[in-house]
Amino acid sequence: MKYRSVFDIIGPVMIGPSSSHTAGAARIGRAARSLFGRKPSRVTVTFYGSFAKTYRGHGTDIAIVGGVLDFDTHDRRIVQSLDIARREGVEVVFLESEEIPDHPNTARILLEDEAGSTEVTGISIGGGKMEIVELNGFELRLSGSSPALLIMHHDRYGAIANVAKVLAENRINVGYMQVSRKEKGSMALMIIETDQSVGDEIQNEISRLSEITGVTVLQ
Amino acid sequence: MNFRTVAELVEVAESENLSISEVMIRKEMKDFNKPREEIMRQMAENLDVMEEAIHRGLNEEVASQSGLSGGDAQRIRKYMKEADVLLSGADVLDAVSRSMAVSEINAAMGTIVATPTAGACGILPGCVFTAADRLGSDRETMVRALFVSGAIGYCVANNAFISGAAGGCQAEVGSATAMSAAAVVEMAGGTPSMSAEAVAIALKNMLGLVCDPVAGLVEAPCVKRNAMGGSIAMVAADMAMAGVKSVIPTDEVIGAMFRIGRDMPTSLKETALGGLAATPTGRAEERRIFGKSEK
């Protein structure tokens, strides 16, 4: 079941004009921001499919940038996000790809600063719902039927145990877990699907753990 | 308190003697481990946003950046006051003008509630506020109506689709119209089965509708399709309240919508490559709005 809550259907409260091209795009941008963990100095957005054809008219470009600036779907500042980004020194580049994507509304976002970079690919599946399908080259296979925690971390001992401890202390049960890395000792990704919702407090607690570089909760 | 289809939803409701809204509220409480008050409050906030959007659309100067939409909701309101005879009647035009008002606010990048999408955001507020006027409904009845439409939308979204990009306008304005019809039936005191019939009747009249927005913008024809969606929902609700039944069961209509959407060419699914978007005037508008840089 891709849509789980009545508020997936009646909601979100958002700035128009398109739930898939504006609100869903803002949510992809905001998920990318929280995975990066800080404000980037440079953002490169590549649009695919319907996004590539119609992003200007739907404000997909300003919505994604608004999300990267950490604005929610109903934040009026989204309308001014390109100006705000410029004022705050965030360089923004938009690219259109001719490649045929698996899903018509696909965007790839590269966030960079002097300390590093994160690349996130998201799809907007309709009604403001979105899914993150790729993170730093790791393909994500989320069921979409449970809340999911995406945690970027250094590949060191104890990182997984520390996260598990926080979840246990908060009485959150893990339904599915996947850990992957590119090579030994480099960056790794934990994907954890949980039975209970993970609130902001728990998310902050995890992001403060050592070896953790970014945390995103997909409800 | 679980359901995946409209038939299961009606079965749960009628076997336990509950309304559709109550089934949806209890499911939400259970699935997300939230107290009733929190869920009711969140939905009441959505209703407030809808009311504000209607108010703005009917009272403020609304124009989109492209100039393709804005002002029609007020035009209809003015006509309703001044015309000697209203051909389709004041009740229908109330729903139509309110649906349009919210849709115009959306096109102008105002604040709306996606129901189920932004492209179809006018229909549910238009119908719920019009029905509340007619029926003298209290606020809780209106909030409950949003849960009814959410329950129907949940079934449509998980068994078919709710976005124009995925299934054409039938999936977007079509779903919203069906959801709204069901909501209004419960407001009027109809049974869960009657709500389900209203869904089938409304959606059948939206099957095959393509998503072909001019210049790819959620304006033309979207605003007018929201207006007509509002009228179809109200009439479908009346038909269901009268005891009219759909020959094809509701879930099979949703299944038909899914297959039609799947078979629909990409050019008619929000890509602005076909339909009205590809007419000479549609193309001219596109060039006017985006200039020569647009291919």
UniProtKB/TrEMBL annotation, chain A:
Keywords: 4Fe-4S, Gluconeogenesis, Iron, Iron-sulfur, Lyase, Metal-binding. SUPFAM superfamilies: ACT-like (SSF55021), Serine metabolism enzymes domain (SSF143548). PANTHER family: L-SERINE DEHYDRATASE (PTHR30182), L-SERINE DEHYDRATASE, BETA CHAIN-RELATED (PTHR30182:SF12). Gene3D superfamilies: 3.30.70.260, D-3-phosphoglycerate dehydrogenase, domain 3. One of its GO terms (biological process) is gluconeogenesis. Belongs to the iron-sulfur dependent L-serine dehydratase family. Pfam families: ACT, SDH_beta. The lineage of its organism: Bacteria, Bacillati, Bacillota, Bacilli, Bacillales. PROSITE patterns: ACT. Its cofactor is [4Fe-4S] cluster. It comes from the Bacteria. This is L-serine deaminase. Pathway: Carbohydrate biosynthesis; gluconeogenesis. Residues 148-219 form the ACT domain. InterPro entries: ACT-like_dom_sf (IPR045865), ACT_dom (IPR002912), ASB_dom_sf (IPR029009), Fe-S_L-Ser (IPR051318), Fe-S_L-Ser_bsu (IPR004643), Ser_deHydtase_bsu (IPR005131). GO terms for molecular function: 4 iron, 4 sulfur cluster binding; L-serine ammonia-lyase activity; metal ion binding. It catalyses: L-serine = pyruvate + NH4(+).
TrEMBL record, chain B:
It catalyses: L-serine = pyruvate + NH4(+). Residues 16-277 form the Serine dehydratase-like alpha subunit domain. Pathway: Carbohydrate biosynthesis; gluconeogenesis. Pfam families: SDH_alpha. It is an enzyme of class 4 (lyase). GO terms for biological process: gluconeogenesis. GO terms for molecular function: 4 iron, 4 sulfur cluster binding; L-serine ammonia-lyase activity; metal ion binding. Keywords: 4Fe-4S, Gluconeogenesis, Iron, Iron-sulfur, Lyase, Metal-binding. The keyword Metal-binding applies. Its EC number is 4.3.1.17. Its cofactor is [4Fe-4S] cluster. The keyword Repressor does not apply. InterPro entries: Fe-S_L-Ser, Ser_deHydtase-like_asu, Ser_deHydtase_asu. PANTHER family: L-SERINE DEHYDRATASE, L-SERINE DEHYDRATASE 1. NCBIfam families: sda_alpha. Belongs to the iron-sulfur dependent L-serine dehydratase family. This is L-serine dehydratase. It comes from Paludifilum halophilum.
